[in-house]
Write a structure and sequence with these properties.
The protein is an all-alpha fold. 95% of the residues lie in helices and 0% in strands. Helix 1 packs parallel to helix 3.
């Protein structure tokens, strides 16, 4: 029985420590562990109840044996008073037998009572451990949820930051490319315009020269 309690305490410690190193969801694992612990305690409670019942049975047997010893004492006295010494002798022999039995039962009751108290104390310790575990479970679950939320936010923020920055830089390069294209187009348009202006001016100059020559010829004829 004591080995069983020690095993339970060992399982409590080892499972809790191993839990933190596992990849499973700590919240679900903690809930399952609490259920397993409660089942173990229920089994131990049944064992304690059985031991207490055994203690009561031994106590009852001891009381019956002690009463029989006292009864045989009275019967031996009556036998002597009636002059039947042989009967008194046989009654005393049975009294001694019952007294030895009562003494053995008394020792068994004492041991059973001591064991019952020890088992009840161990059971109280297990219940205290379970209560502490439940308190730690709530704290660990809250910490686990906070850690998962923080990690999720960090991953999201990291992804958003990287994607946004890359996209922003890409758009900036695209705008700069468009601006360069616009500047090149403007320069080409300006160059073409200047050439067209010179050609137009040349056309206008040629027209004026022709008109001037025509007037000169007209004057000469006159």
């Amino acid at each position: 029985m004591f080995r069983f309690f020690n095993r339970v305490r060992t399982v409590v410690s080892s499972e809790l420590n191993a839990l933190l190193n596992k990849a499973e969801d700590p919240g679900k694992m903690l809930d399952q562990f609490i259920l397993d612990m409660e089942k173990d305690i229920a089994d131990v409670e049944a064992a304690v109840a059985k031991q207490i019942a055994n203690e009561k049975i031994l106590s009852k047997q001891y009381a019956e044996a002690a009463d029989l010893v006292a009864k045989r004492e009275e019967q031996a006295i009556k036998a002597l008073q009636s002059g039947d010494e042989d009967l008194a002798r046989r009654v005393l022999e049975d009294k001694n037998k019952q007294q030895a039995q009562a003494q053995s039962l008394d020792l068994l009751v004492e041991e059973a009572t001591k064991l019952s108290e020890e088992l009840k104390e161990k059971l109280r310790e297990m219940k205290d451990e379970l209560r502490d575990m439940k308190m730690k479970k709530d704290s660990l679950k809250a910490r686990s949820e906070s850690a998962k939320a923080r990690a999720k936010v960090n991953r999201t923020m990291s992804g958003v930051g990287t994607g946004a920055k890359a996209g922003f830089e890409r758009m900036e390069e695209k705008v700069m490319h468009h601006e360069a294209q616009a500047e090149a187009s403007e320069e080409l348009r300006s160059a073409n315009k200047s050439l067209d202006d010179e050609l137009a001016l040349l056309d206008r100059t040629s027209s004026v020269d022709d008109e001037l020559a025509a007037l000169k010829a007209k004057l000469e004829k006159k």
